[in-house]
Amino acid sequence: MAVLATGSATRTSTQTTSETVFRTLRVVNFTAGWIGAVGEHRRASQFHWSRLMPTRPPLLLSFATLISNFDRFAVTPMLVLIALGLHVPLAAVVTAASGYFLAYGLSQPLWGLLSDRYGRLPVMRGTLIGAAVAGLVSALAPNLPVLIAARVIAGACMGAVVPASLTYVGDTVPQQHRQGALSDLMAASALGTGLATAVGGLLAGLVDWRSVFALPAICAAGCAVLLRRLSEPERAQAEGVRKNLMAVLTNRWALLVFGLVFVEGAVLLGTMTFLATALVHEGVDVVVAGFATATYGIGVWVSSRLVKTLGRSLAVWQLIAIGGTAMSLGYLVVTADANIVTVVITALLLGGGWSFMHSSLQTWVTSVAPEARGTAVALFASALFLGSAIASAAAGPFAERGSFTLVFGVAAGVAVPLVIAAAVCRHRYQRRTLVAG
Predict the structure, then answer these.
(1) What tens digit of pLDDT does each residue of 259-311 get?
(2) In sequence order, which residues have a C-beta less than 8 Å from that of residue 117 and are 6 or more positions away?
(3) How confident is the model at residue 420 (pLDDT cuts 50, 70, 90)?
(4) Coil, strand, or helix at residue 50?
(5) pLDDT, position 374
(6) Which residues have C-beta within 8 Å of that of residue 101, sequence separation ≥ 6?
(7) pLDDT class for 147, splitting at 50, 70, 90?
(8) Using a CB cutoff of 8 Å and minimum separation of 24, what contacts does 203-209 make?
């Protein structure tokens, strides 16, 4: 009954929170796209808002991306609290997080094929409803097995949101504006990540960890309804599941990008999960740890603005080099000593690494197989979160023993060959594309 009461109270407060976040996203998207698009905004002001600004993503896609990221990262500062509440070891609770990431990653090919076949928006609406149901079950879970099962289902459903949004941008935004549009989408992602670690930690500490699962569930249900306002974009005619898969899996550049993003997911997302846990292990309050890691969202937000500016003068491989270097330096900082200051610095640097490197890889994958873009983007996201899940599962036992120096040190070391390989390969791809063109 207490849980139901909490869910009811949370539902009421969530409506206000959702409206506030939605208004914030409106201002964010408006500001981000204002420069260079004022005339376009005026001409399009009488049309449907999904067609207002073809150089950036629709507001509702940004909101959906925010919800997806909130749901994915909210568990980070709560691992210890969940372990205490359910009276299970920390390593066992990490299974719920890694299971979410694993389901998120493995479900991507299915959603990509379905979106190529039936459309981006129908897939998003259906999976958001599924995620809402799974989120509410997570909030009411009486034991760890039920929680793990609910988080796996939630991860599988939320797995459709970001790749479908990326594909929507690929379908509607011209190539020359695409990295800027993806940077705008990434800014919404950063806001969701920051709210997850800050608000998630706050709710878990002041109310209960169960309320943190209920919040994105309610927002997801509302977003599924609101997405009816968007129009389905034109896309290449679906050629069948087998043909789409073969078009991507026989493309050497596509396979290369999948491999790169797999390692990026392991280094950045899989390892970043333990930043807040490392602070809690050192005796830091879970709310403070949540706010410290929430600076990752600030790093992504600021860096995404820089990417849009520097992207006009720097080559993509140079943006990748900047991002990968920031990732490696960030983990080196926290390897030396895990405290509030070093975690904040690391989170900011990782946010920069994500904006510079990952947005470049995203732009790359939207162009390697345009005839099967939904499938390519879905496999890309699958590789990202598969790497994340494997890394978090592998690092769980070391986190249980408090060996965070080893976990962060390995991530810093692996980031070095990753950035070298990604920058060099992207440079070669760009040269070959120019020659072919």
Answers:
(1) 999 999 999 988 988 998 899 888 888 778 878 888 888 898 888 888 888 88
(2) 238, 241
(3) very high
(4) helix
(5) 81
(6) 72, 155, 269, 270, 385, 386, 388, 389, 392
(7) very high
(8) 203/10, 204/77, 204/78, 204/81, 204/286, 204/287, 204/290, 205/81, 205/285, 205/286, 205/287, 205/290, 206/287, 207/6, 207/10, 208/3, 208/6, 209/78, 209/81, 209/82, 209/85
Burial of 32 (0-12, 13-18, 19+ CB in 10 A): buried
User: In whole angstroms, what is the distance from residue 418 CA to residue 260 CA?
Assistant: 7
Distance CA 61, CA 420 (A): 33
Would residue 240 be called left, alpha or beta, if left means φ above 0 and alpha means ψ between -120 and 50 degrees? left
Sequence letter at residue 8: S
Q: Judging by beta carbons within 10 Å of its beta carbon (0-12, 13-18, 19+), is residue 416 exposed, middle or buried?
A: middle
Q: Which two tokens stand for residue 318?
A: 């140079």
Give the residue-averaged pLDDT of 94-104.
85
Q: List CB contacts of 369: < 8 A, sequence separation 6 or more.
A: 247, 248, 251, 254, 375, 376
CATH topology of domain 2-31+57-436: Growth Hormone; Chain: A; (1.20.1250)
Query: Is the CB of residue 399 less than 8 Å from the CB of residue 407?
Result: yes
**Residue appearing with tokens 């208004």:** 23
The CA distances from residue 20 to 8, 23, 193, 246, 427, in Å, are 19, 5, 16, 44, 42
HSE, CB side, 13 Å, CA atoms: give it for residue 242. Answer: 0
Count Cα atoms within 13 angstroms, Cβ side, for 264: 34
Mean pLDDT of the chain: 82
- Give residue 318's pLDDT: 94
What whole-number distance in Å separates Cα of residue 286 and Cα of residue 212? 14
- Residue 73 vs residue 341, higher pLDDT: 341
What does the alpha-carbon distance between residue 366 and residue 272 come to, in Å, rounded to a whole number?
26
Q: What is the DSSP string of 229-260?
A: GSPPPP-PPP--HHHHHHHHHT-HHHHHHHHH
Distance from C-alpha of 152 to C-alpha of 268, rounded to nearest angstrom: 21
Q: Where are the domains of the chain?
A: 2-31+57-436
DSSP assigned state of 358:
I
The mean per-residue pLDDT over the stretch 208-215 comes to 90
